[in-house]
Amino acid sequence: MKQWELQCSRCSAKLPFRYQDMKCKCGGTLLVNYDLEHVAQTFTKTSLALRYPSMWRYHELLPIHDPSHIVSLGEGWTPLLRLPDWESKLSLKRLWIKREEQNPTGSFKSRGFSVAVSLLKQAGATKAAVPSNGNAASALAAYAGRAGIQAFVFIPMDCPSLIVDECPMYGATTVLVDGFIHDAAAIIESGRTEQGWVNVGTLKEPGRVEGKKTMGLELAEQLGWTFPNVIIYPTGGGSGIIGMWKAFLELKALGFIDCDMPRFVCVQEEGCQPIVDGLNKSLGGTSVSNTASLPVGDRIIPNPTGMRVPNPPDLELLLSIVEQSSGTAIAVSKEQIAQATHSLGSEGISSSPEGAATWAAMLALSDKGWLRPTDSVVLFNTSHAMKYAKLGTSAAIPIIRTYDDFMLYQDI
Amino acid sequence: MKQWELQCSRCSAKLPFRYQDMKCKCGGTLLVNYDLEHVAQTFTKTSLALRYPSMWRYHELLPIHDPSHIVSLGEGWTPLLRLPDWESKLSLKRLWIKREEQNPTGSFKSRGFSVAVSLLKQAGATKAAVPSNGNAASALAAYAGRAGIQAFVFIPMDCPSLIVDECPMYGATTVLVDGFIHDAAAIIESGRTEQGWVNVGTLKEPGRVEGKKTMGLELAEQLGWTFPNVIIYPTGGGSGIIGMWKAFLELKALGFIDCDMPRFVCVQEEGCQPIVDGLNKSLGGTSVSNTASLPVGDRIIPNPTGMRVPNPPDLELLLSIVEQSSGTAIAVSKEQIAQATHSLGSEGISSSPEGAATWAAMLALSDKGWLRPTDSVVLFNTSHAMKYAKLGTSAAIPIIRTYDDFMLYQDI
């Protein structure tokens, strides 16, 4: 076989690489399949230990042949931060948070677009379009800017305005859509041929899943070539879950790791929870119900728009991964997310609403006994809180001129 | 000698470590002095090559004895991104930008506060205060949150509101000051004894310079244990310049590097330029004058508040470093900064106004012939553009429902 080709995740049919149609005839999603014997020649624990801390350290497991096609802005090898205080509080063996907000575009989306835009460059493409709830748009805009490719981004209008504003800053043609992400996707499909756009939407091309896969490779390496017991991940389109699952299968096939696969937990927002609903339908209720919602008064609550994907491109594949891994899915409320943002802030971590949702899910799963004292758990913080900020809160912060003013304010 | 002590940067007097008074009797600044013979036992190029990519890989050159005192959120080892297109455009040998915005608090300030708060933890301190133009306040807030130390931050009211808002998110007592950073500093000095605050302002304690020093250590290691010819750095209080200078001296003393020191360029904002003015006064005009200012219409221009330090705590030391290194200082306008933000954006880089100021300075220095074709140049991007955003710009982005709407908008 070639160094890599496409293979259907459902029927295992094999095909050469192509853009724009990642669905197999059988309806399954086509993913990249590597010649692992070839990979194993240079991809060893010893060689990896000496490589530069970037997601491109895993280049044998990425679909770019020529290093000159790599479009990099400094993505990957993000910190894995341990939270020992909370291990005791929640009776967990280990608790970590993966700080994906430290990627170049301030979100985990950097990874997928580094690979997707490298593939575009490799293929000589000049225009790319994406429907996005925000961070994917800004990542396409940045990487396309770096590569000299024209980017067109279509964003539902409820997306936080700072993330929207990043896209023209990176030089992308930026449009707000009065509708959901699938409405934005429909607009791209309508114009694709006429405009010459490559659609780099979720599961529309093979690069983004491969880029997200590096989260799994990196996590395993950072943990000393082992898996955690549980991964709690905010899930919209689900390419991160698919990518990490694929990473772990590849590491097992390469003989790097022999332990059980982690239990995957998909976290969604109450009211937009196709994975939670799908799991209940498929297995008669294996998702964890969530009853811990608390009122937060009239605080301004940011929206977890990254999880707002009513129709994931391959729900069947996602459900199968969650089930195979003995994982679950859980929906959390906006109020729980706001509380969780505060808890993570007190630990020194600026979290996106989606990242905070994993914290809220962890509390609920701990409360229900789904998480066990023998569990090592990894949460994913996908972006910074500030990207989602609604300004105006600093209006409540006092303004002083002297230390006496400070004392006065302290007394109030 | 002990593993480390304080030493005056002016008269070389040596003193044991103490908080709160970093000025020597002679008026010089006290900096940390290490027993380099002791350091050299374990600090080798070979041992470093295998260490974890964090600024704490340089622990022998940081003033924390016990690893359990390290307060870390995943700081350092930020990407050094090469910009080959601009090397040709500007006739430079090499051009890199150091992406300090990828630190845990979204700015280079993470480094200094990781060490400063570790020292507080080591000393058993419970309360710390800082006067700050923004990112230092948010970094103290985050690291203090992680360490369980109470933070009090005093911020001039022209600071971007998103950065202000981060501080209460991390749990800090947050106050806006109607004045400059030295007014905020005066308030802390008034209340310090009564409140039991450790003042962690610039050059008030030894940790922040030592943390900033890791930018220099890291840069040298990322360049294969060599120095660039020129470092262009946005300069407010100047602890980054002092820290990097110190790093390079230590590396030379350890025998790691034998080449010339880099020429340091301090970048300031027109109208708040004590280093530029000081250099002109001291040497009769070695700063580079800047005539490239361009109008930018009625665009909303963010403020480079991080450079607004009218009275740097040790101007004499800063000037001496710039002069010894054959460097210079240059002031750029808000309009040049806005243009530079756009240029960096087109390269896929989200830059703070201070980071963009280094780009503007590079263009001016290239234009004047101060930068030469044999020069390798490093710029520092200190934070993300979004932290400084003034919302409302997305109002100009079109809202559509269909592909026909998109075509209509394209025609306008």
UniProtKB/TrEMBL annotation, chains A, B:
UniProt cross-references to CDD domains, sorted A to Z: Thr-synth_1
Keyword Lipid metabolism: no
Broad class of enzyme this protein falls into: lyase
Gene3D superfamilies linked: 3.40.50.1100
Annotated ranges, domain Tryptophan synthase beta chain-like PALP: 71-382
The entry's keywords: Lyase, Pyridoxal phosphate
EC number(s) from the headed UniProt entry: 4.2.3.1
Hydrolase listed as a keyword: no
Pfam families attached to this UniProt entry: PALP
Cofactor: pyridoxal 5'-phosphate
Domain of life of the native organism: Bacteria
GO molecular function terms attached to this record: threonine synthase activity
Name of this protein: Threonine synthase
